[in-house]
Structures are given as C-alpha cells and as structure tokens.
Amino acid sequence: MTVSFTLAQAFEHAEEIRKSRFIVRAAPVSGTASALAFVADAGEPAATHNVWAYRVGGEYRFNDDGEPAGTAGRPVLQAIDGQALDRVAVVVTRWYGGIKLGAGGLVRAYGGSAAECLRLAPRVPIVARVELQVSCDFGAVAILKARCSALGAECLDTACGADGARMRLRVAADAVDDVRGLVRDVTRGRGLVARMDLPAA
Fold first, then answer.
1. Which residues pair with 74 in a beta bridge?
2. Domain 5-125 sits in which CATH superfamily?
3. What is the Cα–Cα distance from 109 to 103, expressed in whole angstroms?
4. Is the pLDDT score of 1 beyond 50?
5. Tens-digit pLDDT profile for residues 150-200
6. What CATH architecture does domain 129-195 belong to?
C-alpha cells in the first residue's frame, strides 16, 4: 500500500538568491478551502510577488502572481509533487533585489526554494480513516469502547435503543478487521460491525 504524507505543521524557510529575498511558507491543509485561506493569510502585501500552489488529492492550483507564465507557480507545484506530498499549500514570497533572474533562474529559484522548504519540514503519514457502526448489547459497550480506543479508534457517539446499543467509530482503514475481530470476541459473535461509507448490500 502506498503511503501518502503531509506536513506535520506549518513551516517557513528563507533564502537570498542574487539579491532577491525569498520566504517560503508551507502548511498542511484539509481541503481546497483551507488551502486558499492559507494562501490569503501567508502572502505579504508589500512584497513584489506572492507565488503559490497547493495539492489536495487530485485537485491542485498554482499562481504566478505576475511572474512570467510557467516560471513560478508551476515549479512550486512540482516541488510539492516531487516531495510526494499531499494536502499541502505553499506560498513563496519574493522581494525583488534589482537583478533579473531570467526565466530559467526564476524556475530554479521558486522551485528550488519551495523544494528545500518541503525537504526540511517535518512530515506525517496520511492515514485513511473510515466510520463504523457497532451494534451490541448494553453490557458490552464499556469494554468495547476501552478496547477500540486501544486500537486507535475514536468513538463519535453512542445511542441506546430497545434492541441494544449502537456505537459510531472512526478508525484507520487498516484496523477495520481488528475491530471486527474484537467485537466478535467481546460479544461472542452477537455484535455487528458495518462500514458507514459503503452502500447497503
């Protein structure tokens, strides 16, 4: 299974390239809305350019912010992809220092500074999570909560009805079989586990 990574936290990196000052700000994002919010917050209005890019799964965008087309935003996106990162937004702010870099120099400056920032930034794996509904007797709820928690499952809510209890859990996708086995053992085969994100058979 291929593991995707994102940044553990926001990170900043600064470089000076031929008298121009570059500050790279990168952050983990949960979706396109949070990526665009980060872009809006991270830019410096007084700077010459605020170039940005983000990738969230199959969705991505980039912006050259006045630099020649293809010399800034796209190299930043390529830096994200080159580091095999997902759910990441990057803003590269440039203060022009009086020396023109040329198209190739801009590509190297924007792409290189972004890549170096992302290389240095701490990262964490993106863990795919799913929701499960566990149906069981009332007496099994407390022990199931404790043991599911030990497997890294998060109990979202518990509801009780005439036919027993229902727990809604969020759990890592690769721990679903462990939860099923746990429920089977604790309830002696009477408990039921259903994936909430799958259509009913």
1. none
2. Impact, N-terminal domain (3.30.230.30)
3. 10
4. no
5. 888 888 888 888 888 898 888 888 888 888 888 888 888 888 888 876 544
6. 2-Layer Sandwich (3.30)
